[in-house]
Amino acid sequence: MDLLDRVLATGVVITGDLVIAIAEVPLVRLSLHALLSSVNERVQAPWTDSGPL
């Protein structure tokens, strides 16, 4: 639980690429980009109405 609390307090970014190739010819490329962070209710939204949309 301490590790999860520490990760959520600071945030973490995960990136990765996966390429599937046959005979050194790339056939499929998958890219992963993920951001994990916590939300603090005490920080006010930068907009004044109900939301950005």
TrEMBL record:
InterPro entries: Gas-vesicle_GvpA-like, GvpA
Alphabetically ordered keywords of this record: Gas vesicle
Pfam family, one: Gas_vesicle
Location of the protein in the cell: Gas vesicle
Primary localization: other
Superkingdom, taxonomy of origin: Bacteria
Similarity remark: Belongs to the gas vesicle GvpA family.
Descriptive protein name: Gas vesicle protein
